[in-house]
Fold:
Amino acid sequence: MTVTYDYTGKSVLVTGGTRGIGAGIARAFHEAGAHVAVCARNPAPGGEFRFVQADVRVPEDVERLVAGFDRLDVVVNNAGGSPYAPLEGTSPRLHARVIELNLTAPLLVAQHAYPLLAAARGAIVMIGSASGTRPSPGTSAYGAAKAGLHHLARCLAAEWAPDVRVNTVVVGLAATESAAGHYGEHGDGRLGAAIPAGRLATPADVAQACLWLAAPGYVTGAEVRVDGGGEIPYWRHLAAEVGRAPGSS
Structure:
């Protein structure tokens, strides 16, 4: 069964929408008939949507960004990310900037967009991460910020109901153009084998969840996991090896 959505006449903003998961989300809303705008610090070549240059960590940029809309039905807070940055020996400013991007910025965007969203009885979709639900060594600030983002969404869902619905898509390991930088040579095969679904999530997988959560309905304050069933713990592989060992029982 194929599920289709009609966003004809709706206005949608996707932060960080010029590449990766954000671009996939923007494309899905565009194909569903929406007027889509994306923002990022730098434009991507050959962009197919209205682009607004903005750093969502900067309040003045966010204010200018939202002021460019007469109507706003959906905001997808997708901008985020982090370099690999173990806590020891790294700059405190780096970790502060990671938290600003992944937690403070979505709060600012939501705050400024609220009047327009309330007028349209619209929706916010936060793009969360499995890193906010389990330890994420090497990206501790990122994981902590995403955990905060998940909680922020639940708080806003309660604070702004019934005018604005707020939900979160919790993304697991994902295949994007930056995946090689994060996962190296294991980006396709070995990491896919660590997921029950047998592969990494794609931007299209995440976009489908966003289309559903942004559509008018009852669901708010929810966290929808798009992680292919999670990550198989390493002890499963060890147990399998023991089970195949000669003389094991």
Q: What stands out?
A: The radius of gyration is 19 Å.
